[in-house]
Amino acid sequence: MFCARLLPSSRLIWGRVRRKGEIKLRRLSTEQEDRHLKELVACYRHNGHAKAKIDPLDLSYRSSREIDDAVEKVKSLSSAGSFRGLVHNDGLKNLDELVDYLEHVYCNRLGLEIHQLSSEEEKSWLIREFEESATKFQLSSNERKRMAEQLIKSQAFDTFLGKKFGHIKRYSAEGAESLLSFMSAAVNYAAKDGVEHVIVGMPHRGRLNLLVDLFELPPEVLFYKMQGNSLVPPDIHAFGDVLSHIATSVDLKCNDKSVHVSMLPNSSHLEAVNPVAVGKARARKQSRGNGQDDKILCILCHGDAAFPGQGIVAETLNMAQLPQYSVGGSLHIIVNNQLGFTTLAEMGRSTQYASDLAKFIGIPIFHVNGDYPEEVVRACQLAIKYRTLFKRDVMIDMICYRQWGHNELDDPSLTQPLMYNRISSRQSVPNLYAQEIATAGLVSEEEMKQKEKEYSDCLNRALSSTGQFQPQETPCRNHWSSMVQPSKNATVWDTGYPIDALKLIGVKSVNHETLSLHPRLLKSHVEPRLKQIENGSSIDWATAEALAIGSLLHQGFNVRISGQDVGRGTFSHRHATFIDHSTNESYVPLNNLVPKQKGFLEVANSPLSEEAVLGFEYGMSIESPMNLVIWEAQFGDFFNGAQIPIDAFVSSGETKWLLQSGLVMLLPHGMDGAGPEHSSCRIERFLQLCDSDEDALDGDRVNMCVANPTTPAQYFHLLRRQMIRNFRKPLVVASPKLILRSPLATSSLMDFAPGSTFQTVIGDSVPSKTVKKVIFCSGKHFYALNEFRQEKDISDTAIVRLESICPFPSEELKKELAKYETGTEFVWSQEEHQNMGPWSFVYRRFQRQLNVNLMYAGRAPLAAPAVGDAKTHRKEHEQVLQTTFL
Q1: 141-471, superfamily in CATH?
Q2: Are 13 and 39 in contact (CB under 8 A)?
Q3: End-to-end CA distance of the chain, in Å?
Q4: Which residues sit opposite 800 in a β-bridge?
Q5: What is the mean pLDDT of each run of 10 residues along the chain (886 residues)?
């Protein structure tokens, strides 16, 4: 009877014949032997990483049963077969040499994982380069000496901080010093490939080492901060951030080339900076024009627990090859401490490697032992070459350890005694490498000690000079130099635009050239817009948006709008992108307003993500003040999937890091019976994030703006104001749903003309002397109140709209209040529940700033944003109206 043994690839290894109770090997042909040898090589190439010596602590036994079985089976063959062409080494003479060669290449200090790649071309290239580099890669003597000095400097830096600032958490590089070797190599190799801009996003670990030892941050700046001082000059309205979040921007010399490096500020949500860095890289790439992928490199550093543990990582990876989010490939490195805070790897993830999450986008992964900086540099070189050639992300998993636990004040031996027994008994990475090059005769250990002493002396001098240090940071630098920090006063900006130009934009916004459009789209979108422009009246929301964006493009600004199905719009109202009904060809009419148009509109239908996409858009917005970046939630409440970037970046980026952003968030909002999840954009949360003063009159110095506009013209002016002003602030717009097409919520074309502006308050035309009650409200609710007033023929009640909620329009409200007689009743009415909406924000300001006591009319407090059945919703709605007026 014939039996077969199979490799994981399901290929026949040898045949066995059973005769009279015995099993004998059947002699295989030379062709069969060659095939089995090829399978042995393939087994090493695919599984060698599992056996590689990549753990500097040797905490777990690493082996590959597949490799062991393959070797055993091939050695049982009757002859060695042919080795020529099997690997990139033609000098092999026998099977033992082949196995030794494969062990050296694939099971050493650097492992290669490529089975997840779908491209055979990429696999073949990686195999060839990996095998050749295993024998040919060699740093020059000068490069090795420089790297040894760099590592020793890092060690001296950490030792110095430990002695002088032992009470401060610094998240040192100790145990992961090879990160500096990686980053230095990445910048240098990238420069050789023509990269001019490197954008770095990273968490705390080793950040200070990189800032000072590699990115040329003066050490006195760091010491000044560590002494408890603020790096924000006293005349700047900002409050700074903690030590481990600070950033830098510097030009580095790489041989005869200059590379600009931007290390972005980060938050304590370790991976939240990922999409921000990628977004900034894309905006930088676009500012240089198409075809500039090779000039920009995004480097993302990760933690081994955070990488698989935080969903924003997967969301960011998923964007890597999407056409409107790609940056030509990012370079990733996991600083793998084999520990997350105090949690061991086997308790913090369900995968073999911390890097396994990256497999789902089919990119190569290099696993490298952090004790061997030269191998880290080799991995970096291979990764850079791959990224340059294939324009794809690439991952390096650098396995290392933390010398002092989560931070320097921690005692990790309480929970990881075995790990820290080994760590405490071993030499440091810099000392190990110094010994290696000393043995090679390149430099003596005494010279290295002298270098360490010289650097420590340098740090001491810097520390002694901190008394003379004065923060010089300016709020707006480089291409942001035209921007200013706003004053406390509220400013009014003429955001109108010439009518003739608006008519041109309106017509061009639905010009579909030779495209064959869906008949329904022609009837419901194109023809009505042309009619609106021709008549100059009944301008709806979508047309106003097109006029705002088109006018900004006409002036040379760039606009990007992203979100889920934004090209069409959730409510099929926008249609900024036309799709040919017969060919599926896409066309953006607003990109063809005039010949040689300077401004460009990018319409990005995003993946089903909020957190990473919003972080990405924020990153784009901080790159240039010439970019209007808009993110639209599919429904308003979907923003809460992006709460971390909103909290950590959007609402606080300027006060922490002096980064201005004009990001616009469109959040469809309104109580219309849609149930708990699709009603409210939770205006109250954004107002709670605003730094508006309850007592002082608000001007432009708030951290972000929150608006609930009621007309298309108001929306038009809001968008234009974002770019016309000489400063940038994030803008949250509670945008409409039901009133997108309402004939009551339209504007005249003259409302967009020069001299017009955004009105923070819209008063009423009811004669003030007849008014006994003034109802203050915001947004869509105005139309329900006005309709009720007309139905009930109520003539003694005025309705005043707050279009801007933050900044709170105190001065405009004072003018409005002055119209009414003493004894007039003032009511705040809202459709949201009492614990939501603007109520908790506005009533205290009415009281403290305007000396007005407001009565509340609205829904009672509720745990959910809305009820779940239509009958209860309608009953509540009627009660709100009755309570407001009666």
Answers
A1: Thiamin diphosphate (ThDP)-binding fold, Pyr/PP domains (3.40.50.970)
A2: yes
A3: 96
A4: 776
A5: 31 34 42 81 94 92 87 72 71 83 96 96 97 95 96 95 90 94 97 94 94 94 92 86 90 91 92 97 84 82 94 97 95 94 85 95 98 98 97 97 84 87 93 94 90 94 90 75 88 96 97 89 94 96 98 96 95 94 92 93 96 97 96 94 96 94 97 92 96 84 96 98 96 95 96 97 94 97 97 96 96 95 95 97 95 95 95 96 94
